[in-house]
Amino acid sequence: MNGGTDRRTSEKTKTFVIDTNVLIHNPTALLSFKGSEIVIPLWVLEELDNLKSYNDQRGKAARDAIRFIAEATKGGNLHDGVRLENDSILRVALSLSTDIPNGFPLDRNDNKIIATAFAIQKTRERVFFVSKDINARVKALSLGIKAVDYEKQQVDINTLYAGCREVDISAENFETFIADRVLPWKENLCPNEYVILTERQHGPAAGPAASDGAANERAVGDHAAGIRTAIGRSDPENRQIRLIGREAKRVCGIVPLNARQRIALDLLLDDSVPIVTLLGKAGTGKTLLAITAGLRKVVEEKKYTRMLVSRPVVPVGKDIGYLPGEKSAKMSNWMQPLFDNLEFILGGYKAPNIKSMDQLLKDKTIEIEALSYIRGRSLPNQFIIVDEIQNLTPHEVKTIVSRAGENTKVVLSGDPYQIDNMYLDANSNGLTYLVDRFKGQKLFGHVTFQKSERSPLAELATELL
């Protein structure tokens, strides 16, 4: 940031009025608006000031945003305007229009922020109100203000990288693949991408095979149904795919029930892939498989010193400090879904050095931690699992992943269609953003699950409700 400037702008210059939630979503969002006029209403600073004391990701983002804005004041006067490094002009505004429509209340900061954009629009031609709050955008539009979402870190969930693809092949090629364990592949594949191959013995397939049915994937296939399946893992350098285990692998008493679960387990047990993302609806086995692989790596193989498990504290919008008791007692309320999965695994997993879940927690073989306490730590030699990651912003996910030290594996899981954070959606959350950005990296693996294995009732509820 450098140099002051006056507040005059060209008629062609776009003016962006920034809502508080944009800075909470990304504290450095101001740098996304290049060669423009950026206006921060004074009430945004008031809201940031109120949020900065929160001991959670919102509080950290508020503090980061305040520091960023304060840094800008070193280059000039925020009332007149300060030039940023992206050639934009940043200023703070305190202006409410005197001709705002009757009935529009100004008793809330949200409405005062919108009223500021309304006032600025009287002197500018190209004014845009930027907010992650869809209701705030609707109110702005009702006043004739152009309102837009902050889309810098958005992806299209409909075209998101799935980590695997399903392909029908001839009986001849299928037999060659099983015999040679490799198959030439002309299409471009990402590192650690998988191909679910289906061979139909009774004529050509009418379309893409649905390979997730457990009945079709135990062992190599279901000969009675005339269908056989096999899974190949990409070898991009040699433009081929390599066969992964034909039999479903039992790990800590858990057996994958469909092709995508087998793919996930293959990635989770591969030490050469230090970051794995698991995306899918409830009951698809994301958390169960992650914990299962973690137990194998920590308890049996001793590849990592401990398994660190966490999830965002989002559902009621309060930090764990509002709950009574010590940290472990507070965390148990939020981590119960993880405990449920761990108890299920231990119910059928008999190991001489494991007696109970309490023992694993007591000797810190497994550590349950709040995300707010992970920030700032360096975490080497650990198997880290963060569940419900769809409730975090891209900035927050970056903070978590950057904590990984030497010889650490990070597993992030979530359902982008089940988001509790009011300012995120399926296209803008940290999970989908990370998948899109990491796609094609050798250190990264991903699986999008499709079939719930929890129960027929759970599957029906997920589909219909």
Sequence stretches where pLDDT stays below 50 over 5 or more residues: 1-8, 202-224, 315-320
Largest β-sheet summary? 6 strands, mixed
Structural class given helices, strands, pairing? alpha/beta
Q: Which radius of gyration do the C-alpha atoms yield? A: 26 Å
Helix content: 25-40%
The mean pLDDT is: 85
The number of helical segments is 15
Taken from the alpha-carbon principal axes, the silhouette is elongated
> How many individual β-strands?
18
> Which strand-content bin applies to the residues?
15-25%
Terminal CA distance: 50 Å
Strand order of the largest sheet: 3-4-2-1-5-6
In short:
This protein is α/β, with parallel strands linked by helices and 465 residues long. It is 32% helix and 18% strand.
